[in-house]
Design a protein that fits this description.
Layout (H helix, E strand, L loop, with lengths): L3 H7 L11 H33 L6 E4 L4 E7 L3 E7 L2 E6 L3 E5 L3 H4 L1
Antiparallel strand pairs: 1-2, 1-5, 2-3, 3-4
Length: 109
């Protein structure tokens, strides 16, 4: 009788039917995590930046991606003219403007 007991313990049960869908569910979950943590915030940030650049007007004080602080004097289709010091003006691409600063920032800098 002892010979039959180990044979009974060694038999495996039927494989679960949901195990074939587990990798698919993991891929879907991974894609959802990537979307909500990486893609969606990046798209929102780009949309906010485009809206900010579209609203630029003369008199706004801005910072460029190169770290230049200046006051907008002229806005074109693709370029803006910044006054960075008295009588010193430069042209930069609109997309290089990274942020608007509060009015009066240029006087305190």
């Amino acid at each position: 009788m002892n010979a039959l007991i180990p044979a009974a313990w060694a038999q495996a049960g039927a494989p679960a039917a949901s195990s074939q869908f587990a990798p698919l569910l993991m891929m879907v979950a991974l894609l959802a995590v990537f979307y909500f943590l990486l893609i969606r915030p990046q798209q929102k940030k780009a949309k906010d930046h485009q809206a900010m650049v579209a609203k630029l007007s003369a008199g706004d004080e801005v910072v460029t991606s190169g770290g230049i602080l200046g006051r907008v004097t002229d806005v074109g289709d693709t370029f803006v003219t910044l006054e960075i010091a008295d009588g010193v003006r430069i042209k930069v691409q609109k997309v290089q403007v990274t942020s608007l600063m509060p009015k009066g920032t240029l006087k305190h800098a």
